[in-house]
Amino acid sequence: MRDSIRQKLQHEIQQIDHLLESFQPLLAVTRVRDPDLVELSALATVLHSFYGGVENIFATIGKSVDNRLPTGTKWHKDLLIQMSKPTDSRNAIVSEQQYGVLIGYLSFRHFFRNSYAYQLDWDQIHPLIESINETWNQLKMSLNFVLDEEDGPTENSV
After folding, report:
1. Which range of residues forms the domain containing residue 35?
2. Is 154 within a domain?
3. Could you tell me where the DSSP H helices lie in 2-121?
4. Closest CA to 27 of 107, 134, 108
5. pLDDT at position 147, please?
6. CA 118 from centroid of its chain's CA atoms
7. What's residue 1's pLDDT?
8. In a domain, 121, yes or no
9. Which CATH number covers residue 71?
10. Residue 80 resides in a domain
């Protein structure tokens, strides 16, 4: 993998790490009580930013490693599907289990972009918030394998 691609991916990883670190106090509040509307709005923004960053990573891999990006009205979902399949130059980035989790974040991204803050529902957002750190840590492990790959997929990589 070229250094410029590796640097782009590492930058996005750092951005998501910083996002989640910055909002840990708010994420911790949700383990004690339900958030109010302002907190819920902030949490929704975190979810949107999180998946946006993940999608930036996937788009970089699609463009720079796979040499193709999906097009059309379902390109966001098609990109996630693309990352769940191995290619000649890399192994799958997203496992079947991770795909099932990430599709929830993608669905929320779509909802967030097409709704009003007063329509946010904690019962729907809560599972995404509750699993965001674990989801990110698992995805980062997969990405670290990709960052370490030199010449295509190996037995030890994702």
Report:
1. 3-148
2. no
3. 3-22, 24-29, 37-64, 75-83, 96-113
4. 134
5. 74
6. 25
7. 65
8. yes
9. 1.20.120.580
10. yes
SS3 60: helix
Tokens of 147: 């960052």
CA angle, residues 80, 19, 141, in degrees to nearest 5: 50
Q: Are 40 and 120 in contact (CB under 8 A)?
A: yes
C-alpha span between 121 and 154 (Å, rounded): 43
pLDDT digits (tens, 9 = 90+) for 48-59: 999 999 999 999
Give the residue carrying structure tokens 């729907």: 124
Cβ contact 71:49 at 8 Å: no
Residues 79-126: pLDDT tens digits? 999 999 999 988 999 999 999 999 999 999 999 999 999 999 999 999
C-alpha to C-alpha distance for 98 and 138, rounded to whole angstroms: 8
| Domain contains 10 | yes
- Supply 11's token pair: 């930058």
At 148, the pLDDT band (50, 70, 90 cuts) reads confident
Task: Report the predicted TM-score, pTM, of the whole model to 2 decimal places.
Answer: 0.90
How many domains is the chain built from?
Answer: 1
